[in-house]
Specification:
Elements: E1 5-12, H1 20-36, E2 41-43, H2 61-77, E3 84-93, E4 96-105, E5 108-114, E6 120-121, E7 124-125, E8 139-143, E9 146-150, E10 154-157, E11 162-167, H3 177-183, E12 188-193, H4 201-215, E13 219-224, E14 240-244, E15 247-251, E16 260-267, H5 268-277, H6 279-287, E17 295-298, H7 323-347, E18 351-355, H8 360-375, E19 383-387, H9 395-408, E20 411-414, H10 418-427, H11 437-457, E21 460-464, H12 468-473, E22 486-487, H13 494-507, H14 511-521, H15 542-546, H16 549-562, H17 566-576, H18 583-599, H19 601-604, H20 633-640
Parallel strand pairs: 1-2, 2-3, 10-17, 11-12, 12-13, 18-19, 18-21, 19-20, 21-22
Antiparallel strand pairs: 1-16, 3-4, 4-5, 6-7, 8-9, 10-11, 13-14, 14-15
């Protein structure tokens, strides 16, 4: 099963300007290499058979004849291959010369696409030799002994995807041809290019390609001339790029003197999901100004359905790296604070009540509340931090909770819950020695009752602490920690909560608070509802029960963001976590995720308000609407068959 991936390549061959025989040999070599690696579609640079910088030599019949002869050689060489090749060549047509992309497979030319926008400035004077595609209606011509469709209104459909083609300057236009191609069904765009190097130009180019890929919700494969094309005043660096909806997934080495083959897999299934849920894309299809009828050309069957994935997958899709992580944390923190500020201002409440356990989630909620009070110029004493030691509270978490509250200058209340819970167990006739769900949830609900009642006492509101990962798994007590007046962490996954707390520690905290926050970051995740070990350590570790949060956050991201099936998520997770978790472990927790996600929807159906910070959140008021009693059978069955 290929899970919707199509393997593509951007090739940068070694060439000699005006030496068609040599150039086609290099093109053949890279095509054979790509075919051997399972590539389905390979794209070469603009005018690669002759060389882009031939200039007035394009007016020589000898060169044009050599180009056509060399193309016939390529057709013969690839006659037994499934791979689709896209090469650049000058093609005579109706008394003019067109700068074209020639698409071929198994010795047959599928179509020829001429360039629309021809530069005629500074170092490029293409209009001296070539005519724009706009000068001719779509039609047919004889080339390499075949009658071939030629024109810009053509798409090629393969079993894996539908693709379109534009050439170099086309993508720099105000409305690139690829925009209309995408509206007409192209899921991948191939660009044959010859872009010379200048200071700053490459950065602009990459931004342009990224934006066009994102705007079209498409894959984008870009291949530009390399070292052999450099001549006279121009230098070409050999840029090969593969984008997927704005993200760069593979690139060539710039200024490399050797041929290069940039290979990766574009997730067409992901692109199709994006298009289905993006209503703007659908509206653009209806409003598309291009009323021409596009010809759909079908290719022969390609390779088998089993694609070996070579691309990497981020094991932590919610967590960027490097400088981006700091920027992400700062932005999220401010979103949380502004959302809470509005709720406080609107309700005119006099206090904010936060249950402080010494764990990550309650710590982040407290930090957000403190920052919000500072922004609103409200004294921090209006924040009531309540620590509620129970049967599972350890010295480490208790001391961290107390130290942090003191360092932040908030009002501290310590309300032990042991005696009240024991009385409650007597009232409902529960044996305190039976450490089951009643034992655990009785403590969680007692804590929530205290928080709500203190909020009433102080004319305040309870600030929720639960995060996205817990909500997805249903790892919260219904009408316990599940409920609050405003839940500031509700759309932040567990893997990101840790980084947010660490970011606040390192950027916005004094010494004592910083040390405490960093220790909280290193504390095992636990609800602390079961008694500690004999040496006073945490006995109940959440990830031992529900599985590693980094796995679950990976599952959440791909399940919710793109609607991927368990088999595809498993294949991607196996690649992303190779060397960290074996396949049996991933299967086990993926099945747990699917079961818990479906069975716990009823908890998400009545969530309190909370700020949306990213593309994934579980609010039942817009972002995630799911029946509380939907069957998980399809998903569980696929998990069993992995």
């Amino acid at each position: 099963m290929n899970f919707g991936f199509v393997k593509v390549a951007a090739a940068v061959p070694s060439i000699k300007v005006a030496d068609c025989r040599y150039n086609i040999q290099q093109i053949e070599s890279l095509t054979l290499q790509a075919a051997g690696k399972g590539v389905e579609i390979i794209c070469f640079p603009e005018l690669c058979i002759t060389g882009y910088t031939c200039a007035d030599l394009f007016q020589q019949d000898l060169l044009l004849e050599a180009c056509e002869s060399s193309m016939m050689t390529l057709l013969n060489t690839t006659r037994s291959l499934d791979i689709i090749s896209i090469v650049g060549a000058p093609v005579p047509y109706n008394g003019t010369l067109l700068n074209c992309a020639i698409v071929s497979q198994k010795g047959k030319i599928l179509c020829i696409i001429p360039k629309t926008y021809l530069p005629n400035y500074k170092e490029f004077y293409e209009k001296r030799w070539f005519t724009s595609a706009k000068s001719h209606p779509d039609g047919h011509l004889r080339y390499c002994g075949q009658t071939v469709p030629i024109g810009t209104h053509q798409l090629v459909r393969t079993p894996s995807c539908t693709f379109g083609i534009e050439l170099c300057e086309d993508v720099w236009a105000t409305i690139p041809p690829s925009s209309n191609l995408a509206m007409k069904g192209a899921e991948v765009i191939f660009n044959l290019s010859a872009t010379n190097e200048m200071i700053g130009k490459n950065g602009y180019l990459r931004s342009l390609l990224s934006q066009q890929s994102a705007r079209c919700l498409a894959g984008y494969v870009y291949s530009s001339c390399g070292f052999g094309e450099s001549t006279t005043d121009l230098v070409f660096a050999g840029n090969g790029y593969i984008y997927e909806n704005g993200s760069l997934i593979a690139k060539s080495e710039r200024f490399c003197l050797k041929p290069q083959l940039v290979i990766s897999e574009i997730d067409v299934e992901k692109l199709r999901v994006e298009r289905r849920i993006n209503t703007t894309f659908g509206d653009n299809i209806r409003n598309c100004d291009d009323t021409a009828n596009y010809q759909i050309i079908s290719s022969d069957p390609l390779l088998s359905n089993n694609i070996e994935l070579t691309r990497t997958f981020d094991p932590h899709p919610f967590v960027p790296t490097g400088k981006d992580l700091d920027e992400r944390c700062e932005e999220i923190f401010h979103i949380q604070c502004e959302g809470l500020a509005k709720r406080i201002q609107h309700t005119n409440c006099k206090s904010a009540v936060v249950g402080i356990s010494g764990g990550l989630d309650s710590t982040l909620a407290l930090l957000v509340t403190v920052k919000t009070f500072d922004l609103l110029d409200i004294p921090r004493k209006g924040i009531v931090g309540i620590t509620m030691p129970g049967f599972g509270t350890t010295d480490r978490t208790y001391n961290n909770a107390m130290t942090l509250m003191k360092a932040l200058g908030i009002t501290i209340r310590e309300i032990p819950i042991r005696e009240s819970v024991i009385q409650h167990f007597k009232d409902i006739d529960h044996d305190i020695n039976v450490h089951n769900i009643t034992y655990e949830n009785g403590q969680a609900r007692e804590r929530t009752q205290i928080l709500m009642d203190v909020a009433n006492q102080t004319n305040g509101m309870v600030i929720g602490t639960g995060d996205l990962s817990e909500l997805a798994l249903g790892w919260c007590t219904y009408n316990g920690d599940h409920m609050s007046m405003y839940a500031v962490n509700t759309s932040i996954p567990k893997t990101l909560v840790k980084h947010l707390v660490k970011w606040v520690a390192l950027t916005e905290s004094e010494d004592e608070a910083r040390d405490t926050l960093l220790d909280i970051v290193d504390t095992p995740i636990s609800p602390e509802l079961l008694p500690p070990t004999e040496d006073g350590q945490i006995a109940q570790k959440t990830e031992d029960n529900v599985g590693p949060y980094e796995l679950h956050d990976f599952f959440i991201y791909h399940f919710m963001r793109f609607g991927f099936r368990p088999a595809k998520i498993f294949a991607m997770a196996s690649k992303a976590f190779e060397g960290t978790y074996d396949e049996d472990t991933i299967k086990k927790w993926l099945r747990t995720f699917c079961w818990r996600f479906f069975s716990q929807q009823f908890k998400r159906s009545c969530l309190p308000d909370g700020p949306k910070v990213g593309s994934i959140t579980l609010s039942p008021r817009g972002d995630w609407r799911m029946p509380s009693d939907a069957s998980s059978e399809l998903w569980i069955e696929e998990c069993k068959n992995l």
